[in-house]
Design brief:
This protein has 219 residues and is of the alpha+beta class. The protein is 31% helix and 11% strand. The chain has a five-stranded antiparallel sheet with strand order 1-2-3-5-4, covered by helices on one side. The structure holds adenosine monophosphate and zinc ion.
Length: 219
């Protein structure tokens, strides 16, 4: 399909209907596989596209952003494909952000950052260009050209209360799984073995004789 550089492809209504029909006939795993084939970060993870890796473990990787806001701008990416953050299991999100946090400290020394922004976009409307979850770690320097801003809005008391209620009601369903404390069932105290005095170069002390208490005689 002809497509001008940087523009979204334009589909005819017939093409859209065809795509919808095809998607409806596909299994969820097949759809996931199709998405992965088109995902640039999945291609990087598959080794099909070069990236400048700075970190990797079993679950996440981090590489340099190809269009950095500042030198050392990193992307921390889960190895498993999720389009947006709310789809990810909590434990995996925890791991992703722990790595982002660690890297946010490393860039201070590594590239001389004086500050750092952690940015995570979800959905096209929020500025997400690559639909594979990722966390930006953006080192900040004095007088750099990174812009992260919004126009400060206004909010009346009644509006604030209405929004507060709407969110707080839903937030009641948040279920944070605290790690269970380990229960120590039995503490067995072992005697600490003491080195013998001979081994320490000292003469062995004779065991003290048991003294029988002397009885005082009455005159
Ligand atoms: P976002 O707007 O949050 O989706 O950010 C996507 C980021 O991915 C942008 O900052 C891009 O510069 C970056 N990016 C796109 N393609 C690549 C690539 N092949 N290697 C590294 N970074 C990339
Ligand atoms: Zn992907």
């Amino acid at each position: 399909m002809a497509q001008a550089a940087g523009k979204q492809p334009q589909y005819t209504p017939e093409q859209i209907a065809q795509i919808k029909k095809k998607l409806a006939s596909m299994k969820p795993e097949e759809i996931q596989e199709m998405i992965k084939k088109q995902c640039i970060f999945c291609k990087i993870l598959a080794g099909e596209i070069l990236a400048y890796y700075v970190y990797q473990d079993k679950k996440v990787v981090a590489f340099l952003d190809i269009q950095p806001g500042n030198p050392g701008h990193l992307l921390v990416v889960p190895k498993k494909h999720y389009s947006v953050l709310p789809q990810m299991p909590d434990e995996e999100v925890g791991h992703l952000f722990t790595v982002a946090k660690q890297l946010s400290g490393i860039v201070f020394d590594a590239v001389g950052a004086e500050g750092v922004n952690i940015v995570q976009n979800n959905g096209q409307v929020a500025g997400q260009m690559v639909p594979h979850v990722h966390v930006h770690v953006i080192p900040r320097m004095q007088k750099d050209e990174v812009v992260i801003e919004w126009k400060p809005g206004k909010m009346s008391d009644s509006e604030a209360k209405k929004i507060q209620t709407a969110i707080a009601e839903k937030a009641k369903s948040i279920n944070i799984k605290e790690p269970k404390p380990k229960i120590v069932e039995k503490i067995v105290e072992k005697p600490i073995p003491q080195p013998s005095p001979e081994k320490m170069g000292k003469p062995a002390k004779k065991p003290a004789k048991k003294r029988t208490p002397k009885l005082k005689r009455h005159p």
